[in-house]
Amino acid sequence: QVQLVESGGDLVQPGGSLRLSCAASGFSFRNYAMRWYRQAPGKERELVATITCTGDKTNYADSVKGRFTISRDNAKNTVYLQMNNLKDEDAAVYYCYVRWVTDLWGQGTQVTVST
């Protein structure tokens, strides 16, 4: 079965850290660039970070540069998003995405930033 499954979302205080994971299955993970998106209530889904299939290049939204790090482990078919110094505005549902033969999305994982 072709799927992406995110995990790691949680409630965290401002300034805290979380690491999200996205486990891929059913396709040749190592051959595809991967992306993380997020969507906050009432807002459009936005691109947060991308990583090439080998992991040698990454890109970030300006809002998360210097705080978030995308990485991948092709042996584990998993992509990660390390989020540090979290802010209120980072609260959202975070989605993993791959442009496979079709657009493939995970179910999302909720990140809540609150005191």
Account of the protein in words:
The protein is mainly beta and 115 residues long. Helix content is 0%, strand content 50%. It is built from no helices and eleven strands. Strands 2, 4, 5, 6, 9, 10 and 11 form a seven-stranded mixed sheet that branches. It has a four-stranded antiparallel sheet with strand order 1-3-8-7, with no helix packed on it. The protein is globular. The mean pLDDT is 97.
Unreliable residue runs: none
Fraction of residues in helices? under 10%
Describe the sheet with the most strands.
7 strands, mixed
Gap from first CA to last CA: 39 Å
What is the H/E order? EEEEEEEEEEE
Beta strand %: over 45%
The residue-averaged pLDDT reads 97
Structural class by secondary-structure content = mainly beta
Number of helices: 0
Number of E strands: 11
List the helices and strands and how they pair.
Blueprint: E1 3-7, E2 11-12, E3 18-25, E4 34-39, E5 46-51, E6 58-60, E7 68-73, E8 78-83, E9 92-99, E10 103-105, E11 109-113
